[in-house]
TrEMBL record:
Residues 64-78 have a biased composition (Polar residues). Residues 1-24 form the signal peptide. Pfam families: Tim44. It comes from Mesorhizobium temperatum. This is Tim44-like domain-containing protein. InterPro entries: NTF2-like_dom_sf, Tim44-like_dom. The chain crosses the membrane at residues 84-106, 113-137. Residues 37-58 have a biased composition (Low complexity).
């Protein structure tokens, strides 16, 4: 039988686990998972970098259409092919076998057995003729469609993008944000890829601090200036949840430790750039009524690594468009 002291120890451990889970939930309330839009690459994996070598979490919340899922759903029925015992030939074969089996069960003896063997032979001959006819018609159909596909470029299979221009998963980006390492390299843009300038990278570093501090101040006007309307809606939703729970997320002293560019590209009149950012910040959760810290430590900075995607239209200001967790 379990002693009273053992029961108390189990109860204490359960309460400690429950409170620790509540605290972790408050600490991660601002993160909100991976959300936002990256244009046509929203649901594609982000190439690894030195700063974020691990695969990024897929986008969980986005207003962008998931064309990858739709294409897979459209291709699924086409991939299904009829088997040997399906269609007209299968129906005839099943009927012949069933008829022969019934004759055997009705007491035909060896004569019935010979009859069913004859029916099986007839069925095989008829089924073979049907299969030959089906193959003939399919080959004729394929020949008629071949000229229509001859002029389609191979790149159309990759939505018009040159496969050689896709980032290599084993490659590490050569675009670190200045001030972190020894500068950043440059490569010639291919297809829809674009090259980031020094001014662009400086703005990304500035946006990191501005967005974090605006969120900590619950400055909705500042967030509308720094982020896309979609991102503002997600961040405002998290601020509303914090207010409903009676807490306030304060973020200050943001310091960038390491960063590099995972990919940058253009879609029509809009540019996109995804940057891997590793930074420190004083990130605490306070009770709104008392001001007491309920999660985090005011004198201990926390280190975070995230993937931030920025976008601009017609050469305008860069705005935050998505945040992903590695």
């Amino acid at each position: 039988m379990i002693s009273r002291s053992s029961r108390f120890a189990v109860l204490f451990a359960g309460l400690f686990l429950a409170f620790s889970m509540v605290t972790a939930d408050y600490a991660e309330a601002r993160r909100g998972g991976s959300f936002g839009s990256r244009g046509t690459r929203t649901f594609q994996s982000v190439p690894p970098t030195r700063t974020a070598p691990q695969p990024a979490a897929p986008v969980e919340r986005s207003m962008a259409p998931n064309t990858t899922t739709n294409n897979a759903a459209r291709q699924t029925p086409a991939a299904q092919r009829p088997g040997i015992f399906s269609g007209l030939g299968g129906s005839m074969m099943r009927g012949l076998l069933l008829g022969g089996l019934i004759g055997l069960l009705l007491g035909q003896g060896f004569g019935g057995l010979a009859g069913i063997l004859g029916l099986l032979l007839q069925g095989l001959l008829i089924g073979g003729a049907i299969m030959l006819a089906i193959r003939f018609f399919r080959s004729q159909s394929a020949r008629n469609q071949a000229p229509a596909m001859a002029g389609v470029p191979r790149s159309m299979g990759n939505f018009g993008r040159n496969p050689a221009a896709q980032p290599d998963a084993d490659n590490v980006s050569s675009f670190p944000i200045p001030g972190i390492g020894s500068g950043f390299g440059r490569t010639a843009p291919a297809s829809d890829e674009i090259t980031m300038t020094q001014a662009d990278l400086d703005i990304f570093q500035q946006r990191l601090t501005e967005v974090q501090e605006a969120f900590g101040r619950e400055d909705h006007a500042g967030l509308r200036r720094l982020a896309t309307p979609e991102m503002v809606s997600y961040l405002s939703e998290e601020l509303a949840d914090n207010a409903k729970n009676g807490v306030r997320n304060e973020v200050s002293n943001v310091s960038l430790l390491e960063a590099d560019i995972a990919e940058s590209w253009r879609e029509d009149d809009r540019d996109y750039a995804t940057a891997a950012l590793r930074y420190e910040s004083h990130d605490v959760m306070r009770d709104r009524a008392s001001g007491k810290i309920v999660a985090g430590e005011a004198d201990q900075p926390t280190e975070t690594t995230e993937l931030w995607t920025f976008t601009r239209q017609n050469g305008g200001d860069w705005k935050l468009a998505a945040i992903q967790q590695p």
